[in-house]
Automatic annotation (TrEMBL), chains A, B:
Family to which this protein belongs: Belongs to the RecR family.
ZnF (C4-type) ranges: 57-72
HAMAP family to which the protein is assigned, alphabetical: RecR
Record's protein name: Recombination protein RecR
Length: 199, 199
């Protein structure tokens, strides 16, 4: 016996959520239909509103429903300092963890020629125009420490050097609270090579 | 810094899904907005259609968008045999695992007076009316082996006896592939007390 078409349809649609397989999708569908129909209606409404209204900030590409995001619009932000990240989630993680007071630039991905993601898809032309305009004095490269993330950082660093923008990369090493024994060798060799004077 | 209101709203709405905490809700929201807007629109549509159209089967209370579900409407099902379960998910689990050819009755819960769930909320009046009508000759109690599930099975069994309906309870014991060493003591004492002659 199969589920009735609308229930099957809902189960299939729930699979678009990351980390949701067939069993959890089924559990979610039954939960919503049996116990939380107001929640399901609210979720549908939130999805429609977000899909229709949330776009990218014209300056930094952060997800926002305004033309310019709160960070770029804030007069308290130092617009000569720019942190470059791969995704909007990275911005929120950094905002929560640090007292960074500059602006951001969200690449919405990383260079990955095999997937057809080149400099254009990442908005690097727009980034270079901002370097050329001379407002940005310093950038912090906070792309992920993956092969593509490193290549992206490298590419942007070269662009920045051409425009005499000071460039730094966030530190990579053993995470706080981690144990050397359980850290992968790539991280450990990074941490070793990037050691600092201890005073 | 906070998320923009529509994004925060979407994150909050995603929390209505079972097993989704603040971090996964955030991950889901960003995934949908960055990478799968068609999927998000499809999900919103499926939610609205399911909430608006899926109701309970008038005979067995299974979730369906028709007045009578496929099982109750099927001429190949033995209507004198009825399996009583707590939730629609149980029906699908049994349909997949067994070749049961009777009909079902879905309680949509279990007796739980503290939560205000009594015989009325479980549709037991309707169930008793069906016993009284005489069509049902035999029931299989497949409520969960929890305290409330057992109490519910007990209550329904008494109702069935009054109407001379043959009653059985699904077997409880060590699960297939399980190891005695790791099975909890309640299950083990059940399995021991419910042992069967071995031929």
């Amino acid at each position: 016996m199969a589920f009735s078409p609308l229930i099957q349809n809902l189960i299939d649609a729930l699979r678009c959520l990351p980390g949701v397989g067939p069993k959890s999708a089924q559990r979610m569908a039954f939960h919503l239909l049996q116990r939380d129909r107001p929640g399901a209606a609210r979720l549908a409404d939130a999805l429609v509103k977000a899909v229709d209204n949330v776009g990218e900030c014209a300056e930094c590409r952060l997800l926002t429903e305004q033309p310019i995001c709160d960070i770029c619009a804030s007069p308290r932000r130092d617009r000569s300092l720019m942190c470059i990240v791969e995704s909007p989630a990275d911005v929120f993680a950094l905002e929560q963890a640090t007292d960074y007071s500059g602006v951001y630039f969200v690449l919405m991905g990383r260079l990955s020629p095999l997937d057809g993601i080149g400099p254009k898809e990442l908005g690097l032309e727009r980034l270079e125009a901002r370097f050329a305009a001379g407002e940005v004095k310093e950038i912090i490269l906070a792309t992920n420490p993956t092969v593509e993330g490193e290549a992206t950082a490298q590419y942007i660093a070269e662009m920045a050097h051409e425009h005499n923008v000071v460039t730094s990369r966030i530190a990579h090493g053993v995470p706080i609270g981690g144990e050397l024994e359980y850290v992968d060798s790539g991280t450990l060799s990074h941490a070793f090579a990037g050691r600092r004077e201890y005073r």
